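Same chain as my last thread, 292 residues:
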Amino acid sequence: MILFHIIGGLGNQMFQYAAGRALALERGQSLKLDIAGFVGYGLHQGFELQRVFNIPAEIATETEVRNILGWQIAPGIRRMMARPGMAAFRRRGFVVEPCFHYWSEIKKVPENCYLAGYWQSEKYFQEVASVIRSDFTFKSPLLNKNAECAKQINQVNAVSLHVRRGDYANNPKTAATHGLCSLDYYRAAIQHVSEQAQNPHFFVFSDDIAWVKNNLKIDYPHQYVEHNYGEESYNDMRLMSMCKHHIIANSSFSWWGAWLNPRADKIVVAPKRWFASQTDVRDLLPQGWVRL
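reply #2:
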């Protein structure tokens, strides 16, 4: 059995699920998701994968997690064991992602294993991309303003533009880790797309639309998508995925918005610097995406 620790916002959950699903398919094993970390979790919208998508994975029981982690199941001990220098002391099946770039040794983990990490690279699931796209089909139909917005997106050469602020701007710890994409990045990205795509029409998504309206000038047809809040936030990702081209933020949310667009001729512009720190992000962006 393969157990995957799921935590974070929707984009992070999708990366974790996709890596686990690919490994399970390759081995012909069952995948189960450990979502115990969401108890008392105050960030984002909690565990969303099953509510939003048609994924087949089941939720792991405490007994199943304990069978692999043993005494290391206790939250405090688990956190301590997840530290980089503690690999030698972990139970045999307790596997922690050792680096941010693609780790090929994932294919050699024990048959019964518990994997923790973020696994943010398409390389973990590229070989089963069609299955992942199928799993990540949205459950509910588009309604009301989202249905109208989808209709507008289909009528023009739509470009999604995502500005992530929120905790990146307001939480000092998060800001120190992630940093914010600069206005210069967005100006350069808009310029790049407008030179490559005929008659672009920008659909702007953000958790701080007021800031975007006041600070980012867009000299092309554009409109702001500002009606999806709280549990409906995932619909922004769905609408992004319906656009033909994409300008993403340093955010796994808009990464997936771009990736879920299956078009071979899509233009995707992403920030060269994903983190404020010097994290190795060589495998984060799929081949063909433009770094600015």
